[in-house]
Amino acid sequence: MRWIRDEEFIRGNIPMTKFDIRVLAVAFLSIEEGDVFLDIGAGTGSISIEGALQGAKVCAVEREKEGIELIKKNKNKFNVDIKIVEGQAPDCIPSLKFNKCFIGGSGGRLSYIFEYLEENLESEGVVCANFITLKNLNEFIELLEKYNYRNIETKLIQSAQTNKIGLIKGNNPIFLVKGVKR
Are 177 and 128 in contact (CB under 8 A)? Predict the structure, then answer.
């Protein structure tokens, strides 16, 4: 298995889930051949592309025009098939059934996204999200509990890299959370 490094993606001013978090998120989701994967707040498409490379059928949702263009460029660069939906989730998402979902950005609409998940995420489906704020983290966990998700896991990930001269530069701590739908 080959994981794509951050510098290989075409980037812009749209946030991208960094390598360490991306690898863990795909592992949390257990994406494999034949999965139907919904990526909400897809940004540059990094998670969508990794999911497609694992064999999933992918739908990427992004509201920012720059993000849509970056997803198109990256999907072409890595030669993967991704359905791209432009707009604010969940309003723009077609009614489709899927078994894996990643939420990289919610636009403050987590409760509405969970209503959509209630109707469209299959039983035993996995939802995973990452957060940098405690407010959004707490809201997500409360929604997982409200909708009776099981196997809820929360991790706080802190990573750092050394630069060319050996100085260590830390990244923002990221909360990674997942739950399995009953």
Answer: yes
How many CB atoms neighbour CB 6 within 10 A? 15
What's residue 19's pLDDT? Answer: 93
Domain boundaries, the chain: 6-180
Spans in the chain with pLDDT lower than 50: none
How deeply is 145 buried, as exposed, middle or buried, from its count of CB atoms within 10 A (0-12, 13-18, 19+)?
A: exposed
CA angle centred on 108, ends 132 and 53, rounded to 5°: 65
Q: Which two tokens stand for residue 109?
A: 């609409």
- Residue 154: what pLDDT? 96
What is the number of helices (H) and of strands (E) in the chain? 5, 9
Q: Domain 6-180, what fold?
A: Rossmann fold (3.40.50)
From residue 70, give the alpha-carbon distance in Å to each of 2, 40, 128. Answer: 21, 15, 22
**Paired residues of 3 in beta bridges:** none
Q: Is the pTM of this model over 0.70?
A: yes
Residue 166: half-sphere exposure toward Cβ, Cα within 13 Å: 0
